[in-house]
Amino acid sequence: MEKIRVAIAGVGNCASSLVQGLEYYRGRNAEGFAGLMHARIGDWGPSDIEVVAAFDIDRRKVGKRVEEAIFAKPNCTKVFQSALPVSNVVVQMGPILDGVAPHMADYSDNEAFRPSDEEPVDVVQVLNDANAEVLVCYMPVGSEKAVRHYARACLEAGVAMVNCVPVFIASDREWAEKFRDAGLPIVGDDIKSQIGATIVHRTLTRLFGDRGVALDRTYQLNTGGNTDFLNMKALDRLKSKKFSKTESVQSQLDERLDSENIHIGPSDYVPWQDDNKVAFIRMEGRGFGDVPLELELRMSVQDSPNSAGVVIDAVRCAKLGLERGIGGPLEAASAYYMKSPPEQMRDSLAYELTDSFIQGIDAHGAAGVGSPQTVAGE
After folding, report:
1. Cα dist. 42→216, 316, 359, 360 in Å?
2. In whole angstroms, what is the distance from residue 264 CA to residue 281 CA?
3. d(Cα 10, Cα 99) in Å, to the nearest integer?
4. What value does the mean pLDDT take over residues 250-262?
5. Residue 90, CB-side half-sphere exposure with 13 Å CA sphere
C-alpha cells in the first residue's frame, strides 16, 4: 500500500507532535494504538502517512530537514519520540504575509518567531514536485492571508486540505464551492483536540441540555506558554478564534445564550507553561425547581500532542475523499474533527456519520446532513 503523501504548512509545535507520532506508532499492533481514535482508516494506519514537503518562515527551521526543524526553537512541545528517521525533506521558505504578529519582536528568541530573509518558494511548484496529496495547514491564528495563499495553492496543485486553524475555508460557501469544483476534499476548520477544552465544554453543555438543566452562563479561560498563546496576545488576531470556540459551544445548546452570558477564548500567555495548556471552565445553571447548579473544572493538557491524533484521522479521511473522487468539505469528518465545520452537529452523531463514511456506507461524506456535496465527474 502506497503511503499518503502529506505537506505541512507551519512547522511549529503541532507539526512536531504529528511528525513524532508518525514514527512513534510505526510497527505497533492494534493494542499499541492507544491515543488514536481509529487504528486504521481505509487501508492506512497512522504510520502510512509520509511527510513529503514542509513550509515555514523561521530562520531556525528553513533549510533544515523536517526531522530537525520540529525540535528547533521556539517549539517547546513535549518530546515523546526523539529518534526519527533521516529524510530528504527540507523545510522550504513560505510566504510570510500576515503570518507573524508584530508584537513577536518584543519577545525573546526562545519564545517568538524569527523570520528568515530567504525568498519565498513557489508553493504550488513545491507541492507538484513532491507529488503531495494532502496539505495540513498549521498557520498561526489570525493568518488570514497566509491560509488563503495555501488554500489557493492546494486548488492549483490538485491537493486536498486539512485546515487546522480558525481561518474559514471549509465553512465558507465560496471556498467550499471552489474545492467542490476542483474535485478536492477539505476537512476544516479549526482542529478539535482529542480531549481539549472545547470538546469537554461542548460535551458538558450538551449534557446540561440532555439532563434538563437550564444553562444560564458559562466561561472558558485558558492559559499556555507556546507560540500559539503568545501570538494570540494580539487581540486583533483573535476574532476568528473566539468566534470558532464560542460557536462550537453555542451549537450544542437548544437555545443560544446571550453574548453577555458566554465568554470563551484564550486568556493569557504564561511563558513557563510551555506547551502545557490549562483550561478553566465554569457553568452556572438551574435544575429541578429552578434550584441553582454550578460546575467548575480545571484541565491540564499538553496542547500539541492533544491534536496530533485527530489530524492523523483527518488526513486519512481526506485521502479517502480523494480515492472516492469527492470534492468539497467532508461534512461528517469536519463536524467530528473540527470546531467550525460547515455544519455543526452533536458529537455523537458526527462520530456515527464519520464511521459510516470511513466504512463506505456513506461514500459522499454524509452529504445528506448538511450542504450538498459533489462527487467529481457527476
Report:
1. 43, 8, 8, 9
2. 9
3. 10
4. 97
5. 9
Rounded CA-CA distance 164/102 in Å is 22
Q: What is the largest CA-CA distance in the chain?
A: 66
SS3 (DSSP) at 14: helix
Model confidence pTM above 0.85: yes
**How is 246-273 classified by DSSP, letter by letter?**
HHHHHTT-SSPPPGGGEEEEEEEE-GGG
165-216 tens-digit pLDDT? 999 999 999 999 999 999 999 999 999 999 999 999 999 999 999 999 999 9
Q: Please report the beta strands in the chain, taking only residues with DSSP state E, as ranges in sequence order.
A: 4-9, 49-56, 91-93, 134-137, 160-163, 185-187, 214-224, 262-269, 276-286, 292-302, 326-329, 374-375
Rounded to 5 degrees, what are φ and ψ at 331?
Answer: -60, -50
Strand partners, 262: 218
Give Rg (Cα) of the chain. 20
Backbone angles phi, psi at 26, to 5 degrees: -65, 130
How far apart, in whole angstroms, are the C-alpha atoms of residue 337 and residue 334?
5
- Tens digits of residue pLDDT in 58-75: 999 999 999 999 999 999
Taken in order of first residue, the domains within the chain and their CATH numbers are: 4-192+305-375 (3.40.50.720), 197-302 (3.30.360.10)
Give the DSSP H or E segment for 313.
helix 305-323
Query: 157 and 327 in contact (C-beta within 8 Å)?
Result: no
CA distances, 255 to each of 120, 205, 215, 249 (Å): 47, 11, 9, 11
Torsion angle, CA of 50/159/70/195, rounded to 10 degrees?
Answer: -90
